[in-house]
Amino acid sequence: MSNPESSSTVRRRAPVPRADCALAQATEEIGDRWSLLILREAFFGVMRYDDIREDLGIPRSVLTDRLAKLVARGLLEKRPYREAGDRQRFGYSLTEKGRNLALTFIALTHWSEAHVLGALGPIEIVDQETGRGLRVALVDDEGRIVPAERAVPKVRVQDG
Amino acid sequence: MSNPESSSTVRRRAPVPRADCALAQATEEIGDRWSLLILREAFFGVMRYDDIREDLGIPRSVLTDRLAKLVARGLLEKRPYREAGDRQRFGYSLTEKGRNLALTFIALTHWSEAHVLGALGPIEIVDQETGRGLRVALVDDEGRIVPAERAVPKVRVQDG
DNA sequence: TGCACTGAGTTCAAAATACGAACTCAGAAT
DNA sequence: ATTCTGAGTTCGTATTTTGAACTCAGTGCA
Questions:
Q1: Are residues B152 and B1 in contact, defined by beta-carbon separation less than 8 angstroms?
Q2: How does residue B20 score in pLDDT terms, banded at 50, 70 and 90?
Q3: Residue A124 touches chain B, beta carbons under 8 Å
Q4: Nearest residue to B83 via CA among A123, A60, A139, A13
Q5: Given A3, A78, B44, B148, which residue has the most CB atoms within 10 angstroms?
């Protein structure tokens, strides 16, 4: 988005509000080493404590803490379920709020494949109905795809 | 993406590789309380140590450490610059790798506005050329926009 | 009835990180 | 020579994370 080459002099300070932004709030909710990974488990249908723990290698005490926080913040729900012929247990599943992180999660995964991993990971995201591979893109209000280089931040006009 | 209502029995374990995924790599690079926020500053053109520190309220020792890590990992570059009539200084600017996090960053910001903040933040992302507001969407390989609910994970077929 | 097993935690001590206030240091301006 | 400023370092304290051991309720089996 911002293009550092576009002006030869440096703005002393960007003319935008900053610390109290949406992104800062978001990092409060999921900006730690484990939360996003736990949510990824939920995306893929893993809902049991011990499965998550094994998959991620997260210490029990941290997992317990993170699950409680994600539930408290409304990203996960703790719900009873019963597997065939087994007793009732509790598992965690995504709420609407948690499910809506999918775009972020997919965008970050694609970034990592391109710039960190340097290869495609073992999982792709496809359209359930057509089977076609999906990617994340910027679109304008008429549904046209716009390359990310053309995106720039703009202070929203308040009604005052 | 995953729909917890779609099957009445719970899969014991999701049939997908997990911990060694792209997302885990990505959280190594930017999954702490400050890195994303620092990159946001860079997106908005803030490149000076003390400006970042003031904006975010981050302790100096932590900022120094994060900047060094982000440079080491190739998300930021430390470059000399000179303001009119001032001595040469050093500032930080995004690399291509860092700039490519824009989609993730925008997606997360929109999520936070919708689900955490409950209101639009002070900044919108617009198309530099048309001025139109932009949002993040999933598109298929023919450029058609697909609603996020239709996105499902699928194990990629390896060549073996 | 007693006993081992399992899932889902809790507890706790040690290690790693984060925090914030004070200090440093080089280049410019006076 | 002194002061100012940007960009850090240092360091003692506070908070978090980690991993190993322990708990505890429900089940299945003998």
A1: yes
A2: low
A3: yes
A4: A13
A5: B44
Q: Nearest nucleotide to A61 by CA–C1' distance?
A: C10
Give the residue-averaged pLDDT of B107-134. 96
Of B32, B44, B151, the CB nearest to A153: B44
Q: What is the pLDDT of residues B59-112, one digit of tens each?
A: 999 999 999 999 999 999 999 887 777 778 889 999 999 999 999 999 999 999
Rounded Cα distance between B100 and B94, Å, is 9
The number of residues in chain A equals 160
Inter-chain CB proximity A97 and B108 less than 8 Å: no
Residue B75 CA and nucleotide D3 C1' are separated, in Å, by 37
Angle at B3 between CA B2 and CA B4, to 5 degrees: 115
Give me the CA B87–C1' C27 separation in Å, rounded: 8
Domain residue ranges of chain A, discontinuous segments joined by +: 22-150
Inter-chain CB proximity B94 and A4 less than 8 Å: yes
Model confidence at B155: pLDDT above 50? yes
Statement: residue B10 has pLDDT above 50:
no
Which region, left, alpha or beta, applies to residue B3 given φ > 0 means left and ψ of -120 to 50 means alpha?
A: beta
* A97 or A19, which is more confident: A97
Architecture of domain A22-150: Orthogonal Bundle (1.10)
Within 84-103 of chain A, which residues have Cβ less than 7 Å from strand D? 85-88
| Cβ distance of B29 and A120 shorter than 8 Å | no
A17-45 tens-digit pLDDT: 455 689 999 999 999 999 999 999 999 99
CB of B50 lies under 7 Å from some atom of strand D: yes
